[in-house]
Design a protein that fits this description.
This protein is an alpha/beta fold. The protein has 2 domains: 106 residues, no CATH class; 125 residues, no CATH class. Strands 1, 2, 3, 4, 5, 6 and 7 form a 7-stranded mixed beta sheet that branches. The longest helix has 14 residues. The protein is globular and about 50 Å long. The chain binds zinc ion. Zinc ion (ZN) binds next to strand 1 and helix 6.
Length: 289
Amino acid sequence: MKNSFLLSFTFILLIGFHSCKNKKSEEPEMHRFCGTDFCTAKGGSELTTLLEDTSIYPPVKFAVQLINATSTKNNAINPKDIESELNYIFKKANISFSVHPHIHFLQSNHNIDTIFNNKNIRDTILRQYNVKNNINIYIVAKGKSLNGYTNVLTENFSIYKNTSLNYLIINEKTILNGHTIQHELGHFFGLQHTFGKSPVELSTDELPDGTNCKESGDYVCDTPADPNGKIDQNCKFLGLHDGSEYPVNPDIHNFMSYYPSHCKMKFSSLQYKLMHNFANKYRKYLATL
Ligand SMILES: [Zn+2]
C-alpha cells in the first residue's frame, strides 16, 4: 500500500501539463503559456541521448480518435482532411496516422481553460471517451487563453507505457488553423518549444552561437536559439521588442515556436529524427504498426 502510494505520488510529480497559446506579434511577451516546465535536465539529457541514437527504427503508425466535446457539433471538422494533413507533415518522421472516420460527440459547455485548470472536469470527460491504444484528440470550446495542450512527462519517458497519457486537447477555433495539432503532437513525440523553458523574451538559455545547444533551449541543435522576439506581418524577424538586435535569426516558421500561426509550417530535420526515435522508444505502446 505504502509503495503504491509512493509510486503514485512520484508519478504525479513527473507529469506536467504542456499547454500552448498563440502569441500575437504586437504583444509584450510576459504571459506564461504553459502549465508547467517541460523537461527537467534529466529529461533533456534523455532527449539528447535519443538524438544521438544511430539505431534504425521502423516506421510507426497510430490510430487517432477525435472527440468533439463542445455544445454543438462542428460539421467543418473532417477526419479525412486531418488525417491527410498529419500524414503529410509527419511523413519525414516516418510517423503516420489513421484517423477514425467517426467523431465521438460529447455535449459539454466547458472551455479549454476550465478543463486545463480543473482536474475533476478533465477526468470526467476523459473517463467517458478516452480510447485505449489510440491518440485521443479532444476538440473543446475556446476559452480566453489556450490553443491546446497535452500532458507530458518531464523525465523518465519510459513510464509512458503504464499511463493513459494518450490525449491532446485542442480549442475548436484552432482545430482548423493548420498548426495547433502539429504543435501538440510535436510535444507528444518529445519536442520542446524552440525558446526552451520560458516564453519570456530573451530568457532562453541557448547561446546564439549554438555552442551549448545540446544542453539548453529545446536540446535540438538545428533549431537556432530563439529569443521569442519581434517579427513583422510577413514573418520577418526584427530583433527584440526594445529595438535591440539579436545575433541570429530564430526559426520563425517552426511549429514549436510561439510565433503567429500564419508563419508556422515546418519542423527541422533533427526534430523529425527526435520524434521518430521518441515514437519508437516511448510511444510504441500506442502504435498499431
Ligand atoms: Zn507548446
